[in-house]
């Protein structure tokens, strides 16, 4: 079965079709958004998630707000969509592009112009992922056993994926790639989404609980680690799903290469270092429950940061569509 697109435009009904990732892997179902408010809710509730996919979705949200040719509505959409999730910089990049495009359009062509821009953002992301895959796969030996965290796949992007796109490309080059997938508590993007999409592509996949990664590395069972990113600072410090930092430390200790794959739209040159990146904190319910079932009483205090920062010293290379970047990141990222 071909993977359904995480986000696509329904041109017949002028609405956005979103694969509801909250239902995966149990059910393939879709949400239809007819307004920017629906789109904002879909992003906030993780029906659609992953930095590039959030950017693409938000762009369509802005286009939807222009259906009646009203600039005021576009301004409201830009504001509302910017308030959905703070960490993935792709969201703000896409909104900035939509705002700039809106400024060039009269009310008669406001909707068509913005829709065209959203389509472009989607197409560019797809292209970047393919390029990243080609460039990144060269880092992987003929036989690789790879550990990944969260979901940086087709589901998290316009398609093909960043980290998982690199693994797809490696396979397309005839390499033998076995993948261990961290379950990725508390929302289980690894166990639910990464395992689902890789199994459909015929990958050799094994899901592990997050606390099993160290034991696996100790057994020499992992040859490299690859993850995606939500925001990369100018010095290479990388914000990604909570647990990425622990994995990077484990990889460093075990001398296993640790790679980040992300399009250049994920690099935020205005953030000098990871400490400048805003980390989203989500509702404690995600920690107090497991896939909707109670785990601990509501009265138990919890902490639920959605992301952490991996210092650039722990990263061996950052794979982008414009090239594979090696340390020193501060100089080499600037060259992009
Ligand atoms: O909270 P999520 O599911 O949006 O977090 C997603 C991640 O952390 C991904 O690794 C990251 O966005 C890269 S997606 C290509």
Description:
The protein is an alpha/beta fold and about 325 residues long. The protein has two domains: about 5-130, translation initiation factor eif-2b, domain 1 (Four Helix Bundle (Hemerythrin (Met), subunit A), Up-down Bundle); about 135-330, Rossmann fold (3-Layer(aba) Sandwich). It contains eleven helices and 16 strands. The protein has a seven-stranded mixed sheet, sandwiched between helices. Strands 11-8-9-14 form a four-stranded mixed sheet, covered by helices on one side. The model has no long low-confidence stretch (mean pLDDT about 100). The protein binds 5-S-methyl-1-O-phosphono-5-thio-D-ribulose. The site of 5-S-methyl-1-O-phosphono-5-thio-D-ribulose has 18 residues, from helix 2 and strand 9.
Keywords summarizing the entry:
336 residues; alpha/beta; Four Helix Bundle (Hemerythrin (Met), subunit A); Rossmann fold; 2 domains; seven-stranded mixed beta sheet; binds 5-S-methyl-1-O-phosphono-5-thio-D-ribulose
List the helices and strands and how they pair.
Blueprint: E1 7-10, E2 15-19, E3 30-33, H1 36-44, H2 51-65, H3 71-82, H4 89-102, H5 110-136, E4 143-148, H6 163-172, E5 176-182, H7 189-200, E6 204-208, H8 213-218, E7 224-227, E8 231-233, E9 238-241, H9 244-253, E10 258-261, E11 267-268, H10 285-288, E12 289-290, E13 293-294, E14 307-310, E15 317-320, E16 323-325, H11 329-334
Parallel strand pairs: 4-5, 4-7, 5-6, 7-10, 8-11, 10-15
Antiparallel strand pairs: 1-2, 2-3, 8-9, 9-14, 12-13, 15-16
Helix pairs in contact: 1-2, 2-3, 2-4, 2-5, 3-4, 4-5, 5-6
The structure holds 5-S-methyl-1-O-phosphono-5-thio-D-ribulose.
5-S-methyl-1-O-phosphono-5-thio-D-ribulose binds at residues 49-52, 88, 150, 152, 156-157, 162, 189, 227-230, 240-241, 306.
